[in-house]
Amino acid sequence: MDLFFQILVNGILAGGIFAVVALGFSLVWGIMNIINLAHGSFLMLGAYVAYALFANYHVDPFLSIPVAFIVMFVFGYLVQKYIINFVVRAPILTTFLLTFGLSLLLINAALLVFHGDIKGIATSYSGANFSLGAVVVPWVKLWTLVAALVITALMQLFLTGTKTGRAIRATSMDIGAAQLSGVRVAHLYAIVFGLGSGLAGAAGVLVSLSYSLQPSMGEPFLIKAFVVCVLGGLGSVQGALVGGVLYGILEAFGSQYIGTGLQDAVALVVLLIVLIVRPTGIMGKATA
Amino acid sequence: MSFLQVEGVGMRFGGLQALDNVTFDVEKGAVLGLIGPNGSGKTTMMNVISGVYKPSAGRVRFADKTIADVPTHNVCKLGIARTFQIVKPFASLTVRENVAVGAMYGREGGKRSTKGSFERSQELLEIVGLARVGDKAASDLTIPDRKRLEVAKALALDPDVLLLDEVMAGLNATEVDEAIDLIRTVNGRGVTLIIVEHLMKAIMSVCTSVVVLAEGRKIAEGLPHVVVQSPEVIKAYLGSRFAERQAQLEEIKREADLARQVEPGAHA
Amino acid sequence: MASTSTVKVLQKVGMGGITGNRYAIYVSCAVLAVLLVVPSLHNGYIENLMRGVLMFATLSLGWNLIGGYTGYVSFGNVVFFGVGATTSAVLWQHFQQQNILLAIVVAAFVAALMALVLGFPILRLKGHYFGIATLGIALATQEIIANIDWLGGGSVTSIRQVDFFSSYYYAMWAICALSLGATWFIARSKFGYALVAIRENEEAAAILGVDATKYKVFAWMISAMMAAAAGAVFAGANGSIDSPTAFAVDNNVFPIVMAILGGVGTVAGPLVGAFVLTAINETLWSRFPEIHTLFFGAVIVIVVLFLPRGILWLFAVRGGFRGFVNSLKAYRV
């Protein structure tokens, strides 16, 4: 029974990161119908930002989160505005390939700059735990979850409370009507993509606290982002959160009872079943 | 045994009752007009008859089959074809290819080869007047031509019944006359038509009978010029005050006629 | 009136239509004929390279059928390639069969069965959901195979190669030629038009009498058989196979890029794309071995931005250079 709760807690704690990763992915997909295969590499870049700040200036990774967010936001904004916007109205396959090419570029550029050796961030509190009864909770993972919740809450506030946020939601519903209402779509798309990559960067920082860094570190999270989006539905913050935690739990249990080798397979079978039974996801709105 | 029977059809979308116990028959060779104010359920009715929607109540019978029991892609094999109000062309195919698809998979499609289908397509393009744009991509057509394409595709299915959903919307006066001619030609070839139209001129000149829907219910049925004068219908379109005014005018006219007959020395 | 227009119609049917640029098809046939000569050059490098081109062309043709013509973009067709390769390995490991033809037939059969069974639920999904589902199937299958020892258990399984001269090359050539022929035949037939109708507007296609489910599944089955056949020959030619190699990302993405590069929804596009992309890849690999993937990514980006509809589109669009530039504007915002 204790084992059950331990796994459950592990799953929930991991779920926070998945939620943040998925949120950025889901925004871009839900609002612009772009499947950003470079999302994993944005995550990786964010992680390296945190690493650079930590290794050179001893900045605590949690403090790097806003920095990584801003850096990746700007990067993403430029990428969308001057590259992706050229083909954003093309069939989804086109942008899919474009982002794939981009991810190849970014991962290999990182490989050149940072080399393939594995790095890590080890803070003073890295290994510390506390206990809730028989369940062991590592402090880092708990703070990661808290950070993830704060980030998703801020994003929700932004989307519902600000003018830009509402413009984003309007454009996702009807691009033509939004344009007629004066929304500058090119600029707005760039903002959305920037938000997506900013979130990926922030998630990257969170990941760097618990996992090691290498140029290909973001790719597994890309798959997970897919699954979470399908589980939780596209374009909604609550969906990403619920989906992320749900996926974290599923993966934790799968890992324990079916073995780590098959954990992806389990997740994917779940994905397939959800897709067949309820294509809009467990919480999803109507498809984008 | 009527040609096509709509029996007690009801259609519910969540809390909205789009159609409520609608019953009418369609005679073979008729041109039936389906009219009514906006939102009265005309397009829903078309969707039910063509098998796109399965009705929540009642059924539509044609050729000894209940349409709801037939899968969508087999409805045309029964002999029913339709056009859509929002046209659905195959954008990157040419006009001729668009119609050819119908000829390939429609009722007679099984007997046709690819070549035969294209020949049939060319015949139909000439009937509807699209022969000059046969090689254009469907996405490059003008609105009237797109409507013609919709009709040609439907005709490619060799239907016994053709449903036209607001085929004249957006056409100018000349184009409307051309459309009316086309309807007459098609009807003349033995196709029974059910048309949804807002254009009264078209309804009056081409329909053999009319069914009026309002708020999902049938409120009148019969010959066009009789139905449009019925107070119920006027009330549905123009509101009850106008209907009363109309009734008053009728009354005054009747009395004026009577007065003229009684008065001595009046002109005969 | 009818007779002259019928003549014009007959002139149109048979070439063009949805097959794409007919000259590209002629050139492709010529190139294929030339490729028959390669083994007699006795150059191992070229033979391997060309066999690779034929393999990728086959994969791309298969993808093009379901993704390009039918519009159901599969991101996981590599699963059929992997299944084909695994079948070949199993036939040797457990049944001591090294006959190439047998491997091809069994692999194609298994893949077709898989596409049939999975097709009905998965092909109901629209747009990108279908793509994700196929990706999921590919990843899940890879992991499942890696965990079942009888199927190879993820480690390298060796296959005893047939000693006949360049037989794997000729086998791959035959599969590629067959796939090209099949695509051309389909594109000229009623079936081909049904697929395109499904792609353009599935609802309208159903109203016109097209049984979409049946045709989609059928297209996916054919696409699966092409990929599996290529996989079976690849495994034999390689002499060994393991899960990561069989299900490599390259085998998934390259065929798609090639089809786009050459021209999606045309007969010759995948072949053209396979040649061009292999040429680019080999050039980059030999000139810039360390950063070849970096350049490759850049190439993909450039191709997608400036040739979103593929090379063959350059020949199809009207209005010269200006017209071409205009056609790109449709995709911008």
Structure summary:
The complex is a heterotrimer of chains A (288), B (268) and C (333). With 288 residues, chain A is an all-alpha fold.
Word description of this protein:
The complex is a heterotrimer of chains A (288), B (268) and C (333). Chain A is mostly helical. In chain A, 74% of the residues lie in helices and 3% in strands. Chain A has 11 helices and 2 strands, in the order ααααββααααααα. Chain A has helices spanning 2-32, 39-57, 61-82, 92-114, 139-161, 163-173, 175-180, 185-210, 219-232, 237-258, 263-277, and strands at residues 129-132, 135-138. Chain A has a two-stranded antiparallel sheet with strand order 1-2. In chain A, helix 5 (139-161) packs across helix 6 (163-173). Chain A starts with a helix and ends in an 11-residue tail after the last helix. The model of chain A is unreliable at 284-288 (pLDDT under 50). Chain B has 268 residues and is α/β, with parallel strands linked by helices. Chain B contains 10 helices and 10 strands. In chain B, strands 6-7-8-3-9-10 form a 6-stranded mixed beta sheet, with helices on both faces. Chain B has a 4-stranded antiparallel beta sheet with strand order 2-1-4-5, with helices on one face. In chain B, helix 3 (95-105) packs parallel to helix 5 (143-155). Chain B is globular, with a radius of gyration of 21 Å. Chain C has 333 residues and is mainly alpha-helical. Chain C is 74% helix and 1% strand. Chain C has 16 helices and 2 strands. Chain C has a two-stranded antiparallel ribbon with strand order 1-2. The longest helix of chain C is centred in the last third of the chain and has 27 residues, at 212-238. Chain C starts with a helix and ends with a helix. Classes of the chains: A mainly alpha (288), B alpha/beta (268), C mainly alpha (333). Chains in contact: A-C, B-C.
